[in-house]
Amino acid sequence: MRGSDGTEPISYVFLLVEEFSLIAFASAIEPLRLANRGAGKDIYDWKLVSETGEAVCSSCGACVEVSGGLDDASRAARVVVVSGLNAHRAATKPVLTWLRKQSRLGSPIGALCTGALILAKAGLLDERRCTIHWENQAAFSEEFLDIELTNRLFEIDGNRFTCAGGIAATDMMLTLIARDVDPGIVSLITDQIIHTPLRGEREEQRLSVPARIGVRHPKLVSIIQMMEQNLEEPISPSILAQHAQMSTRQLERLFRRYLDRSPKRYYMELRLQKARNLLLQTEMSVINVALASGFTSPSHFSKCYRSYFNRTPYRERGAPPVAAETSLSTIETAKTV
């Protein structure tokens, strides 16, 4: 396949793994198609592969046919790992070996959503900046202590590129397209997909605390930020109150007024949510998950977890994962922990 001017198109190989994110995949591949359309020639071509060469089902259940297996990929192509739920299960020996081989051949290698976890397991993100979906950041940081992880929408560091997933994949691909061809084509694409303005790689991926909780009280926001930054070693209510220059009684009233729960309960919920993410997304032992979530006693952790999620941490580890985590705001019927 050649461009209309006789030059070779830039080739991509998308490696789809089981339970990949369909929205991230579509958000990445559609800009390539539209770049060809806008340029009136084939700037890009692409191939879809899987580990076995068989069709792969996304996390939403939609299955996608591929062109072949790992051995069918072009050596000169840019490789993009498309992952989603249970990325650690997709990091099989054949996949990791193939990725390392592509790296030795000089292929630029990237990842969408949780695909960064697979690249990290292959050792391809050492001494590189990368990002991953915010829900997976805690698990990633626990496993890869020496890799620089950011909270940005996407990161392009040399010949490695990663994005948080979702429509952030569009922003990353458009940035890459702007580097490859006339940036004017990018404007045509953003108009076509109604995605303006284009977001840069320095933008943060997650909503701010005020946007997430629906409250803009400066002291409450400051306290919650402090809680989120200290989940492994929880801070006492008295120190939180001192940080906000208020009494513990005022702190209690503040949380009751805006969040309808005590500071202690809200803090516990944050820690238990982190624990659940680690249980579902890593192979860490339950004891290590407890410690990483600020619990020094495994029995106390198990009791709190069961009270909140109505199942034990061990049952959670063996239970099928859900597509999306339940947000704190929807758990109004949980018992006080």
Mean pLDDT: 88
Number of helices: 15
**Largest pleated sheet:** 6 strands, mixed
CATH superfamily of the largest domain: Class I glutamine amidotransferase (GATase) domain
Widest sheet: strand order? 2-1-5-6-10-9
* CATH fold name of the largest domain: Rossmann fold
Give the overall silhouette: globular
Question: CATH class of the largest domain, please?
Answer: Alpha Beta
Q: Calculate the terminal CA-CA distance, rounded to whole Å.
A: 61 Å
- The multimeric state of the shown protein is single chain
Sequence of secondary-structure elements: EHEEEEHHEHEHEEEHHHHHHHHHH
Tell me the count of domains.
Answer: 2
Strands, total number = 10
Over the alpha carbons, how many angstroms does the gyration radius reach? 22 Å
Which structural class should the secondary elements be placed in?
A: alpha/beta
Main traits of this protein?
single chain; Rossmann fold; Arc Repressor Mutant, subunit A; 2 domains; six-stranded mixed sheet; 15 helices; disordered C terminus
Give a summary of the structure in a few sentences.
By secondary structure, the protein is of the alpha/beta class. Helix content is 45%, strand content 12%. The protein folds into two domains: 10-192, Class I glutamine amidotransferase (GATase) domain (Rossmann fold, 3-Layer(aba) Sandwich); 209-330, Arc Repressor Mutant, subunit A.
